[in-house]
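Hi U.,

Before I forget, here's the chain from the pilot set. I'm dumping it here mostly so it's searchable later in email.
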Amino acid sequence: MSGRKRNQRSSFPAATLIVVVISALIGVGLALLVINANQAATQSPGVLAPSMRMVLREGAPAPTFTLRTLDGQTVALADLRGKPVLINFWASWCPPCLKETPALIAAYETLRAEGREIAFIGIGVNDDPQNLRRFAENNQIPYFVVEDSDGSVSDSYGIRGLPTTVFLDSQGIVRRVWNGEIRKDTVLEIMRSLR
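Structure:
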């Protein structure tokens, strides 16, 4: 009888250990599912959902695009060849994007007053066209404002967060990528350096 008790005791810890390990693995798996679901649901403003995006490299040609302005005109990047271009990816739901807009407007107006041939394009990403239009009108944005409603242009540029500003030289080559809010003096310095 004592041999039987010993076998029961030695198999009991092994069975318990197996149940504990399996339960822990299931618990960890469920926790990861909940964490991922919460991150997707509560993603920070200015952070775009992950996808298979390329990485935009300085010194590489900028991906071309043709988009419509909020008043229905067509803007093709290829048509702006020959002048430095600033492309600002933004959204009306992104607080840093809204905060930097006056700096972009002031930089644009300063460069134009200096007689520089430049182009600025504000690309509204995954946003409601009415919100984009209202913001552009309320702030009297003087440069092109276009919508990238499906995010395809921002994907082609590898945009991971908003705002992101891309600076192109007159040949359409990416010379600088600025992630996050940008100041007027930074825009002026970079744009003045582009040929």
